[in-house]
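USER:
Class, as today's exercise, take the chain set out below, and explain how the chain folds.
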Amino acid sequence: MYLAFATSAFQTQLVYRNQVWAQALGYFISISAKVAIWTAVFAGFASVDGVTLPQMVTYAIIAGSVDVGWHWEQFIQKVGAQIKSGDVAVFLLKPLRYPIMLFSAECGNLIFGLIALIVPVTILSGLLYGFTPPPSLIYGILFLAMWALGFLILFLLAGIAALLSFWLMTAFSLEWMLTAMLAILSGRIVPLWFYPEQAAAVLKMLPFAWIAFHPTAVYLGEVDVPGALGLVALGFVWVGVLAAVVAMLWSRASRRLIVQGG
């Protein structure tokens, strides 16, 4: 049943071809801007804090690829709209779990984004700007595990923000709040290497770091294999904690549902 939701979401994305082209172009322009900025920052320097320009170019291409392939902003808006209109009440009458149904559908959207956006634009950007391969196969495998964890954590964070709409009756402010938190805390724009040491030590332990910084650092070999395995284990802990929060919010929200219209 849940596989059907994933398949339907994937097929729906196939209809909007012009939108995909526009998203791919926007993604490529964003990467190009970041590469230009870091090239200017590294001008005249072989490395900054032990990080070389080729590594930063690769970081700019990879970091944030999860939230490019999956539009979590639209996800929050969609759930918020269902709550505000009362459409969410329909799912209480069906033999399914609403959060799992949402996850299944968004997996379909992510797979489409991976095929249509992330892989093609990453290849094109690598050909134009250069792309540093992982130090070994094990780092590549660990990167894929970390990347998948990043999606799980981002989905759960977006799910928490969306479910809070039951109490606030608006998803707009929650979406903007999460956007700001990701920009500052995930290392998507500026790697945590360049943050003050004490601040970076704290941010590396928060779940946001698994969305952009940790996967890319593992890919570049900036974390040894035992350390990367530890990050994977801790990432699963965060997935468990955030999943418990989502389950709690949905349990409470479904018992106090007030339909606004619909």
About this structure: The two ends are 26 Å apart (CA to CA).
